[in-house]
Design brief:
about 60% helix; mainly alpha; about 70 residues
């Protein structure tokens, strides 16, 4: 099973390196979203991720001032 996983990772690496999709292109002059829209989108994505909720629920209380 370990070797099958290794072969699969090598396959994925080859597909990523040699695919014809190319890199990400940034278009100049495209309309940008407002900060509020970006924050709202990020909040919804983060709130919908249960792993992130558990992570922050475990980590953040240590840094809160209780007084």
């Amino acid at each position: 099973m370990k070797w099958i996983g290794f072969a699969y990772l090598i396959y994925l690496t080859g597909m990523a390196l040699f695919s014809s999709s190319g890199g990400m292109q940034v278009r100049v002059g495209e309309e940008r979203n407002s900060r509020r829209a970006l924050f709202t989108h990020g909040f919804i994505v983060e709130f919908a991720n249960p792993k992130a909720l558990l992570y922050f629920a475990a980590i953040l209380p240590q840094f809160l001032d209780q007084s």
